[in-house]
Design a protein that fits this description.
Chain lengths: 189, 189
Amino acid sequence: MEPMKEKELQILNASLDLFVERGFHGTSTSEIAKSAGVATGTLFHYFKTKEELINRLYLYSKECMLQEINDDYHSENSFKDNINALWTALVDFGINNSAMFQFILSFHCSPYITSLTKKEVETRSERIMEAYILGLEKQKIKDVPYDLIVDYLWGSVVTTVNYFEKHPQKMNPQIRDLAFDLFWDGISR
Amino acid sequence: MEPMKEKELQILNASLDLFVERGFHGTSTSEIAKSAGVATGTLFHYFKTKEELINRLYLYSKECMLQEINDDYHSENSFKDNINALWTALVDFGINNSAMFQFILSFHCSPYITSLTKKEVETRSERIMEAYILGLEKQKIKDVPYDLIVDYLWGSVVTTVNYFEKHPQKMNPQIRDLAFDLFWDGISR
DNA sequence: TACTAAACCGACTAATCAATCTATAAATAT
DNA sequence: ATATTTATAGATTGATTAGTCGGTTTAGTA
């Protein structure tokens, strides 16, 4: 991604919080501009339309998340350890970037995100996941459609992050590892 | 719930589809009225405000879902069989009532649903789940916080329903049972 | 210093929104 | 039969919206 102007980032960050809180149509461009400390004219200088804003915001958020799991794969580690590292990185990202995580969650199947944006994100996502995927040693994992396992991993991450959001006092590595076991013991034979 | 006038139901059904497709603020009351085949005046006769409409729609949807799992508990069956019946009933509801399921998913933590509505739904929900909960025999289940198990069950249902939505050709009882095993083997020791 | 282009501003506009209002028609009660 | 309430419609209203426009400031460059 190209480096971003300061005001552009301010607008992205302001709209991130507002979109999560009130949704796409529930947030007016003037509110975003005010919250970002810029004029509406400036907003439309950086983003041609409100739709372009949310699409760029989606790309930006996904990019942030993917960067977190980019360097976690180590071929010398066991398959379980690698999956655990991936799962944990995603959960940690969700906890430390609550708004971004919720945004990705809420908007990944939203009609405002164009299919072009989705495709761009998916291609990137698949390339990064590839390393983990290749390690999918069939003998240790149940004979279940590959993409069901992937969806199930993401579902488990989402459940865990939301659980920690709801019960912050229970947020500790022990329960986190316990939650991973719920996933791992489910998929392993 | 009280019996509903015909037009009231038409409005609820029309708004269900539109809210899922375009969100709360993305759907205008005039669109809802048109799609329901009534005038806007009629809509506001049955629902004082747009917010009341979405709250009543939420109650109505949850009620439909809870009715599906109301009579499935049988104390003479094993704990696993009961949990399986619950899980399967929820997945089947999600498949057969796609819009309602997505609506519940999207709006259960939405700011438009008042805390009063949420409380009303939760109380009802907890009373129905109680039977299943009581059967939670600790010796068969991992020693994990009770509400994490509940969240994890719901997460597993959501993942499974969405998977079937995405891959309709893979929607069969075999894969459904396989998905249940992913959940069950995760929580059982 | 003088020129240019990009960044930035906020008043403005046409469209759209939730909700109201007035007017009938239908149903129910007396 | 008559009075009263309820159901329905659609035109209307004041507020709000996404996006524009003309002008000003800032930053880079010759």
